[in-house]
Here is the input.
Amino acid sequence: MNKIILGNCAEELQKLEDNSVDAFVTSPPYDNLRDYNGYSFPFEDIATEMYNKLADGGVIVWVVGDAVLKGSETGSSFRQAIFFQELGLRIHDTMIYEKNGSSFPARRTGNRYSQVFEYMFVFSKGKPKTANLICDKKNKWSGWTTFGKGTNRDKDGRLIEGKGRKPTPNFSPRHNVWKYNTGKSYTTKDSFAFEHPAMFPESLAEDHIMTWTNPGDLVVDPFVGAGTTTKMAAINGRQWIGIDMSEEYVEIAKKRMEVADQMIQDGYERVYTPEEEQKAGELTHKEISSMSKKNLVELALKLQGGLK
Ligand SMILES: C[S@@+](CC[C@H](N)C(=O)[O-])C[C@H]1O[C@@H](n2cnc3c(N)ncnc32)[C@H](O)[C@@H]1O
Here is the structure.
């Protein structure tokens, strides 16, 4: 536990206990898009091992995209998803990792739009045992609780005035398209890690770890590359294991775990909704001007009544 392993994950995964991994967060080498110092990718063997090692209720976050070969996307990501499903996993969610830009922006004379996303398949062994949905989508009506009088029906079917609806929370769960800035200092501030050609953003790994696991859970990345997943697992109090078959990347990942150690010592804590953003009841000019007449009337009445 808590180590970076140099080796082929097809073999290294076999050494883990069955049903012991709470979450895999990983991005495999796909469609020969890059040559990671030479790699071997027996997908079906690795997927089967991952399935065996996954705990009941555990999840696999599988971040992939498809190459375009001879004018057609390969569709590998879909075939992989179906394979995981046939092993017995649920396709719990097909999420999107949207990037802020494309390495090959579309040309006006081209026939294809800029590719700016990858899939983040979330496979689960049964129902996910942990789902701490990240609530950082600000509600327009946060704090403005009980516009109108809520009504309920009593057991004879008569409408009775409710005691007031629950206050609208300040934040709600975000949607399943997650957008990240990529590139220097966005993906990570560890500049030495950019020796790896295909890191995913630290926030992406962290957001999945925070969602699907709790402190103390075991998070494994069988294609750990520069150690993004393991770093984010460690600084958030999870157990972690990373595997990569490139000596060069394993060295980077180990260095990254030293950065993690320092962050832990400095008391790192991930906060999604800072306190100053949690103030309730403040509507912007734009929000007020886009209100329906009915809501405006209710707001005026409420203000007249002294904001009860
Ligand atoms: C897409 S990269 C992962 C990058 C990682 N998510 C990060 O943020 O740094 C895929 C990695 O898988 C490694 N790899 C390829 N085949 C492997 C195998 N069979 N076992 C272990 N690692 C492998 C490559 O060396 C490469 O570093």
